[in-house]
User: Fold this.
Amino acid sequence: LLKEYKGREKEVLAGLTGVHKEMEDQQVVAAVGEDIEGKERRSGQKVASAPAEIDDGWGELLETLEDFPYERYGIKVNKR
Assistant:
């Protein structure tokens, strides 16, 4: 995937590649019963299907999933 979007990494991390559809926003609004901006203001977090902004600090590029930082994302892993 990284090779496919070489040079557009910041757009990918912000969800601004053109893959995001306006219809998805409307479905989220219908599901939560309110506008996306209002939910984001109250929660301080981006709504899952809403695109972000370039360099807003929400996206993170990982070169590999080896040694993935599970704890950083609140994922608990049982170690064997």
Observations:
- The helical segments are 9-14, 22-32, 36-43.
